[in-house]
Amino acid sequence: MTSILAPSRRAVLRTGLAATSLVAMPAILRAQGASVKLGIIQPVTGALANDGDLGKLGAELAVQDINAAGGLKALGGAKLEIVFADSRSNPETAAQETERLNGEGVAAIVGGFGSGLCATASQAASRYDLPYLIDVGVADQLTKRGLKNTFRFSPSFGMVTKSALERLVALNDAAGKPARTVVIVHEDGLFGSGLAKLLQAELPKLGFEILETVSHPSPARDMANVVLRIRSLQPDLVIPSNYYGEFVLLARTMLQQRVRPKGIYAILGGGASSLRFVKEFPQAAEGVMDCNHWPDPKNPLTAELRKRTEAAGRAFAYNVPMNYSAVRLMAEAIEKAGAPDRLKIIEALSTQSFSSGVMPYGQSKFDTGQNTSALPLNTQVQGGDVKVIAPEAFAETKANFPLKA
Amino acid sequence: MSARDLLPAIVALALLAALPFLGLSGSVLNFLVTTLIIALAGLGWNVLGGFGGQYSFGHAAFFGTGAYATAILQMKLGWNAWGALGAGIGFGALVGLAIGYLSFRAGLRGSYFALVTLAFAEVFRILANAADFTGGAAGLLLPLRPGLATLQFADRKLFYLLVLAFVGVALLISRWLERSRFGAHLIAVRENEEAARALGVDALAVKLRAIALSAAITGAAGGLYVQSFLYLDAGVAYGTWISVEALLAPIVGGIGTAFGPLVGALALQGLGEITKHLAGGIPGVDLVVFGACLIAVIAFAPQGLLGLRPFRRRRKARGERTVPVGA
């Protein structure tokens, strides 16, 4: 039993120290160069480790830049200090780590990745009126729980699918309606099942015929049967919704078996807008379209972030610019609040508008916690790179659709 | 049961009940709540696995059923949270009876029983992931409404005490098993089912009652989990993580003992928290340290922490022996 008492005592001491430092904070803040603690929570171990790792990198780059540019100017140049928490890809740990971040006296928390992780972490934070900015957690309900402390920077599931369907119709119409028949391939988890259900309801109304909906578990190690089925059905369009590993497997198997539909149109697809996929399997990736989170390609900072990500030995994905921008937004909110005071930060987040970093959101403004300016972009892999094809304002190039067989 | 039998349980509970009033931080309190919920699931597993010798790898089936019933009855049918929790415990027991009836009737034992329970839990996970009324893969988010009727307390201490009360009841049940006629029958079935039947023990009835009791306790843990985190999806409810936690706690603490699951859960979760601080900058190092410690415990204390010398000597002196042969 002694081994149990030891950490509690340690934690008591730690919390005590944190509490005293909180009390003493106003005095410290007047001093030049005092730091403001910002909690960053990401799953850097477990099933979502790859995404969490990239998200963490994005947050770190943002803090580097803010501090290099003189810290939080409205707070006398106070530096931002990251307190990092690993949610280990499971919801209990996300809640437990949020409690720890609170104990360490962070002013706000940014991160989450994964709806379940965001759900428990933001709820734990709400006990302490601790502002929580979700980077990506798409479940619509996250901002519908009446939690005053919870804000979502990125578009919700409903917002993404609405844009995705509108743009699919526009894309098809512009090309002279080459696509009519569709096969949906989805994983049986959160993204996939929800999306498949929605597509089954919406696509027929838009003039598409769904030939079949194929579901598979995650992880799946073999897509041969799925691809054989697609081959026999000969759809014009394949709409996949799955995680990175399964998407890559699907695209590779389709290439091997020479199944070339007129288009592969992913919605929140795990691999379709990842440069790792493009780099590792350029042939399979070529021509794949995706409606997903993606930074504004016309913002020069995007290219710079991509270089810095590659310099850190990682392949660029949306997690980096998303968290980079979310942290900058939170820093702006702390500045607008005028102090690292939790209630004032929540007040600022709910009433003011903020610049959106490198994300294509213009001025971000939160309505009951959801960023109403958030917008997904449509991308396509062209010439070994991910290019934005829609909407018009952000497009770098024209869509290559239908693909030549 | 005499007063002396209950004394250790009462002292332990009193100590644990006093803990939150020492001014613990929310982090420690949250840790204790999670640990007690896992201890409760472990106490449930121990009834069947420890006392009954039927090793289940699928207690998630009961945990998840308790959790889903508690959440769904509140969200979809507008039940009172207490009633929903009670019903969750009942549903857990029913699922236990059903799985028990199917597998014990077929005479499944040992690794076959373990595999069947694992399969049931997986089937439940896949069904819950696909069905609409469970919220599908998006899961269920219980609305945050602090209050007595919704079983959500603004003060974490109260929730901690509630979970502790459940752990107390489960401890008393375990203590009762060590002393009662039913418990003796159960242990007889564990040690040698044929011999027990020859002596007139209805092995099937005993095992069925044990699995229902075990499932009810684990179902309660599920219901409390969802009340604490207010979030549930198929992976949380029926995932293998809880089957493993429910089985590790008693194995590490001391299988087939009343206190084993509680000690095991506190030790394991405590170790997990301590190793987190050793992680430094490299993600996952804490998990490696955790695994190494776990291997050490199993290598050097095969009968669990309560089987270590100071505990064992005392038990021998009193002429007790409840640790299973060959465990």
TrEMBL record, chain A:
Keyword Manganese: no
Record-linked Gene3D superfamilies: 3.40.50.2300
Key word Plastid present: no
Family: Belongs to the leucine-binding protein family.
InterPro entries per the UniProt record, alphabetical: BCAA_transport (IPR051010), Leu-bd (IPR028081), Leu_Ile_Val-bd (IPR000709), Peripla_BP_I (IPR028082), TAT_signal (IPR006311)
Xref: Pfam families: Peripla_BP_6
Native source species: Methylobacterium aquaticum
Domain Leucine-binding protein positions: 35-374
Gene Ontology terms describing biological process: amino acid transport
Keywords: Amino-acid transport, Signal, Transport
PANTHER family with a match to the protein in the record: ABC TRANSPORTER SUBSTRATE-BINDING PROTEIN, LEUCINE-SPECIFIC-BINDING PROTEIN
Official protein name in the record: ABC transporter substrate-binding protein
Annotated SUPFAM superfamilies: Periplasmic binding protein-like I
Superkingdom: Bacteria
